Amino acid sequence: MRKKWWQKEIVYQIYPRSFKDSNNDGIGDINGITEKIPYLSKLGITMIWICPIYKSPMVDNGYDISDYDDINPEFGSLEDLDYLFETAHKYGIKIMLDLVINHTSDEHEWFKEAINNPESKYRDYYIFKEGINGNPPNNWRSIFGGSVWEKVPDEDMYYLHVFDKKQPDLNFENPELREEIYHMINGWLEKGLAGFRIDSITFLKKDQDYSSLPADGPDGLVTCKFKTRNRPGIEKFLHELKEKTFDKFDCVTVGEAPGVQYDELDEFIGENGYFSMIFDFKYADIDVESGSDWFKRTNWTTKELRNLIFNSQEALQKVGWGASFIENHDQPRAVSKFIKNTKYQNYIGASALGILYFFLRGTPFIYQGQEIGMKNFERDSIEAFNDISSIDNYERSLQEGYTEKEALNFVNLRSRDNTRTPMQWDSEENAGFSEATPWLALNDDFKTINVQDQIADSNSLLHFYEDMIHLRNDSRYSNTLIYGDFKADKETQDNIISYYRISDNENIQIIVNLSDQNEKIKLQSNDIKVLLHNYKNTKLNGTDINLRPYEALVIKLNEI
Ligand code: GLC
Ligand code: CA
């Protein structure tokens, strides 16, 4: 693969509502991000991705856009954004924004026109269908629960929403709508963005028969994925999108592309693929059978996780490049999800996970707070949740016959609010996030888990992340760690995840004991150099290493 500029980036994902509140209204904002650019620079971050900051009624915290060309007032203004760009630029940090084009808010002018004036061209910007005998057009279930169809008042017509009813889907079959979207995208790229993370992009194409399928739940509905996600015909839309926008710029595009199979990766991220890279959710979602049905929990093992990671890496390596992540704003905190023994949900567990994913072949993404080991926040009643999909999943779990206690447990384990609590900057009031009460309750562990304390402690996870970034990007091993081939080590004991990064003259091994047991691993050489380690000293015994619980290391093997 030819080298691309975005392969060597270290991306930090910002959930703007919860990052830093600069004007003390309890809501994080753009000036808050600007304030923390020096912090991110010190950490070694080279690019940030900011979740949506466009004008929005905030039903889905910005993933419901009512004006693509303006900023939501609670986040600030276009001038604030310019100032953020300028500041970030001074620190050598690039900026990616979120691009949400599968749907808008129902408060977007286009949608308002579509509803108020059925004869206007805007009606065809969305997907409207007639009801059948007073019922919705079919039995598809939306990702956030309930029918994908919402009735239009005073008409026997329904509009389609794959997500919330306040997020009507755009009709990509309409060429005029597509052109408006391309125009908007190019306008943003001309401002000097590094690129976009592209939301829910595999939902653009819907099966045009709009037919029902056999129900898959007691609600009589069936997940809309089978008819709306990565469906035949999408290639035309994605190809045109790329050609008319991204191709004109040297930008980076990261697709949120659930539903893409490994044998289709070439079309998505190959040399002429639609995107620079896509997120692969197969191992992030190991704890649930499907990303959206939280009551379908699995009893996963380290060996299964290892196989998923290896399969993903091997598939990506064949055709292109990956986006490596263990957390985002839709996932629980990684330490809470992947470290089964709560005793190790601390520096040790978090640093093991760090080593595990950070040196995979791909561009690493760090989600805000991951670098200090923030954890899930357990809530004791459903009223304490803000996230719409948590509330929906709670109700669906009850419908499936689970008790309230069980339903609450599923939501606590998986809620998107887990990663949306305010960033923990210090141990003062509201964790230094704001002087006002934050829009979403803080995790009460901020007195012990916060940035300020970890800056002061040279053995903290924060400094460990700095070390990982340094090793990957600015050390004599960078070439191998960034561009080297990935090779799985399939010979280890089941609790160990080990792989190699290999270049012409170097072989680096990443070893993680992802368990609370002592384990042994046999090396190919006893002449090694430890490059990074989450325990103090290595227990090397000839070519054997005795690994302690969640022990993880990066080593250079001197003989291949
Ligand atoms: C993506 C976003 C998620 C949002 C959904 C609908 O999955 O990551 O936060 O709710 O799309 O836009
Ligand atoms: Ca604010």
TrEMBL record:
Keywords, sorted A to Z: Glycosidase, Hydrolase
SMART domains assigned to the protein according to its UniProt record, in alphabetical order: Aamy (SM00642)
All copies of domain Glycosyl hydrolase family 13 catalytic, residue ranges: 13-420
Molecular function per GO: alpha-amylase activity
Listed GO biological process terms: oligosaccharide catabolic process
CDD domains: AmyAc_SI_OligoGlu_DGase
InterPro entries: GH, GH13_cat_dom, Glyco_hydro_b, O16G_dom_2, SusG-like_C
Annotated coiled-coil segments of the chain: none
Family: Belongs to the glycosyl hydrolase 13 family.
Name of the protein described by the UniProt record: Alpha-amylase
Originating organism: Staphylococcus piscifermentans
